[in-house]
């Protein structure tokens, strides 16, 4: 936790920050982050002024003892740290998705939905394309509240895109959009991840994409189903995983299980995916983050929730691992799920 204290002190040396800004500038999961802010406030290192966190004189002394400087911005301003720049075909798909996305059904907490920014959505596809995992490949998208499958199909690059979705509202919306756009390379079906993957979709895809829940059981369940859909050695999978609701110990458990699936982690891109969570509604709801914050939180003025983009690759025949199927909200919620409703 010492490193994160230094991250916070350095950020506040530069200038006062909102609670939401500080979340994006540190590496703890939200439960530990809120505890650390309480501790630093009790020690008199920082204070709240109108919803903004300000470093006190004592906090400044602590920063000087640690020989800290003001935090500088080092992220590439053009790609926002994603390593890809939208142009050509992907710029055209971006413009088309700007027309389509506003018509999609509203995200609901029943399925822990939270779509990413459109810039993130297109960047996902560019990364997949750059790694040879999109063009002339068969792509499975498991859960698609942000319409990744539609965007992938609009590029015309995959041979086939199969979307599997539990929310019937999204299933019908995607079907309608496919008809309106005259698309022939995308199919969508209803599927609940707690059920075994039907045989017709097993060992059928070169690439999968999924943005799973943040519980260990939930992530493993989603990845298990996706892994069983892959054709074999060299097939790849992409998914998002946060540090905000998934501690490094959780990461360790998951990465160990990925090896049992005959999958290796080839890439992790930090803070790649940024989400468009409800703002006013978020602070008005009984989310653990809101309840446990050291002070009453203002409405976020930025998209503050992010996840890292993982890439997995099969080194031999992909294998599902034995696991217990979670029931009810256990699929979505655990002690680290501070931005998820119980």
Question: What would you say this structure looks like, in words?
Answer:
The protein is α/β, with parallel strands linked by helices and about 350 residues long. The protein has 2 domains: about 1-65, Orthogonal Bundle (Arc Repressor Mutant, subunit A), CATH 1.10.10.10; about 90-330, Vaccinia Virus protein VP39 (Rossmann fold). Helices cover about 35% and strands about 15% of the residues. The protein has helices at about 1-15, 20-25, 30-40, 55-65, 90-100, 120-130, 150-155, 170-180, 215-230, 250-260, 280-285, 290; strands at about 15-20, 45-50, 50-55, 140, 160-165, 185-190, 205-210, 235-240, 265-275, 305-315.
Q: How many structural units, i.e. domains?
A: 2
Span between termini: 26 Å
Which spans have pLDDT < 50 for at least 5 consecutive residues? none
Tally of separate helices: 12
Strands ordered across the widest β-sheet: 6-5-4-7-8-10-9
- Any idea of the CATH topology of the largest domain? Rossmann fold
| Mean residue pLDDT | 95
Query: Biggest sheet: strands, sense, closure?
Result: 7 strands, mixed
CATH class of the largest domain: Alpha Beta
Look at the structure and name the CATH superfamily of the largest domain: Vaccinia Virus protein VP39
C-alpha-based Rg, rounded: 21 Å
Notable characteristics:
single chain, 2 domains, 17% strand, seven-stranded mixed sheet, alpha/beta, 342 residues, Rossmann fold, three-stranded antiparallel sheet, Arc Repressor Mutant, subunit A, 12 helices, globular
């Amino acid at each position: 936790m010492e490193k994160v204290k230094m991250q916070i002190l350095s950020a506040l040396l530069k200038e006062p920050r909102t609670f939401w800004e500080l979340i994006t500038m540190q590496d703890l999961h939200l439960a530990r982050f809120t505890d650390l802010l309480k501790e630093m406030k009790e020690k008199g290192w920082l204070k709240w002024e109108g919803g903004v966190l300000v470093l006190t004189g004592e906090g400044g002394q602590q920063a000087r003892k640690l020989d800290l400087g003001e935090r500088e911005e080092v992220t590439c301003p053009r790609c926002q740290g994603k390593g890809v720049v939208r142009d050509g075909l992907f710029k055209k798909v971006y413009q088309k998705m700007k027309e389509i996305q506003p018509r999609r059904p509203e995200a609901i907490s029943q399925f822990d939905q939270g779509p990413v920014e459109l810039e993130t959505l297109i960047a996902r596809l560019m990364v997949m394309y750059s790694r040879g995992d999109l063009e002339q490949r068969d792509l499975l998208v498991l859960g698609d509240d942000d319409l990744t499958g539609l965007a992938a199909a609009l590029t015309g690059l995959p041979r086939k895109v199969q979307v599997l979705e539990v929310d019937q509202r999204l299933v019908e919306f995607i079907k309608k959009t496919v008809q309106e756009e005259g698309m022939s390379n995308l199919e969508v079906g209803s599927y609940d991840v707690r059920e075994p993957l039907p045989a017709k979709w097993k060992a059928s895809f070169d690439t999968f994409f999924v943005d799973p829940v943040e519980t260990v059981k939930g992530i493993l369940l989603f990845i298990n189903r996706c892994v069983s859909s892959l054709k074999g050695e060299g097939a790849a999978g992409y998914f998002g995983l946060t540090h905000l609701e998934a501690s490094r110990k959780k990461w360790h458990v998951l990465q160990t299980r990925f090896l049992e699936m005959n999958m290796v982690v080839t890439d992790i891109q930090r803070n790649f995916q940024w989400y468009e969570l409800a703002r006013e509604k978020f602070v008005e709801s009984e989310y653990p983050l809101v309840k446990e914050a050291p002070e009453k939180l203002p409405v976020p003025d930025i998209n503050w929730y992010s996840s890292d983009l993982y890439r997995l690759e099969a080194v031999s025949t992909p294998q599902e691992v034995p696991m217990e199927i979670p029931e009810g909200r256990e699929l979505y919620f655990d002690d680290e799920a501070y931005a998820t409703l119980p």
